[in-house]
Structures are given as structure tokens and as C-alpha cells.
Amino acid sequence: MLITQSRFAAVLAGLLLGVALAATAAEPTAKAQATVTAVFAGGCFWCMEPPFDKLPGVVATTSGYTGGQKMNPTYEQVSAGDTGHVEAVQITYDPKQVGYEKLLEVFWRNVDPLDKAGQFCDRGSTYTTAIFYANEEQKQLAEQSKTAIEKKLGKPVVTAIRPAATFYAAEDYHQDYYQKNPLRYKYYRYSCGRDQRLEQLWGKKG
Known about the structure:
Layout: H1 5-32, E1 36-42, H2 45-53, E2 58-66, H3 75-80, E3 86-93, H4 100-109, E4 118-119, E5 122-123, E6 129-133, H5 136-153, E7 160-163, E8 168-169, H6 177-180, H7 182-191, H8 194-202
Parallel strand pairs: 6-7
Antiparallel strand pairs: 1-3, 1-6, 2-3, 2-8, 4-5
């Protein structure tokens, strides 16, 4: 069958349109892949969101639970201490704007890495510190930073470095708690002695 010039032009136009549509459809995926995640456990997840939210390049912070064996745990179940989970925060960030090394720096500055029984006024395994690495690069950077912190403090750091596990987002009322309930958050943070202990460890923030 002969293809006329007009039919050929129509076929060519259709192909070009198909390519354009495919490129448009792929665009959101490319954007989604532009961000990566990091997961840190630093005691109360309410208190771990603010320092990361301030960082340029951080797209979102999510409070949640990870490291345990129970699927889709609730806050009450995790708090009871028998799920194996710890309270943690998942950081979604653009690696072109902020590096994992900077995230580690912020993490250490906001925890007491010498406390093996919890964090500040929150006691128990649910509130212990940990870095959950997603790949070999994150693992190596985490281990290097831990060694540096031990040298800085002159004491053994008990923060665990663990492979990433399923991360379960906490209930909605826990998300951005410091923004939704600023007075309650500030009272809790102060009464828990968090900032006082952090200043003892790291000095006053610049």
C-alpha cells in the first residue's frame, strides 16, 4: 500500500505528539526521583522535625516508627515498648541542595549520643538514638561521623547505625506538632530538659 505525502505527514505528526506526551508523563517521575530520604531516631520525634525543617534543601519531615517487627503500629503500641520500634523522623531532601553529611551534623547536634536508656526525660527503648542507612554510602558516612563524635566528646557513643527498615508514618496529630501546638511543644521541650542537656554537650548554638 502506498503512503501518500499527506498520510506520511500525519503519521510523523502523531509520532512526535506521542514522544511529547511520553516526555510529559515521565516528568513527574523524574522530579520524584530528584529527592532522597534519610531516617534518624533521636528520641521524641516532635523535637527532631524543627532542626531539619530549617535546612535549605529539605522538602519534608515525617514523624514515624521504624526498626521493629510489628506492621502498621499505633502510637500506643509503640509507646508500650513491645513492638521493637523507635520513634524516628524521615527526612525527604534534595541532595543537590543539602548533603547527607549536613543531615548527620544536624542529627548529632540535636541528640545525646551518650545516653543508652532514652533521650532526656523520655526513657525506654522507644526513645533510643539510631541512624538508619539506606545504602552503603550513607552507612560509611554515618560510621565516619560517629567516630568523629566519639573523638570530640571523648566518650563512647551508643547511637546505633542500622540498615533501613520499613518506616511507618505516625498519626496525623503527631505531624508538625511544634507548628500545630507551639505552646504545648515549647513547654514539653523545656520541661524535658532537652535544650539544657544539648547545651552541656555541644555548647550554645551560634
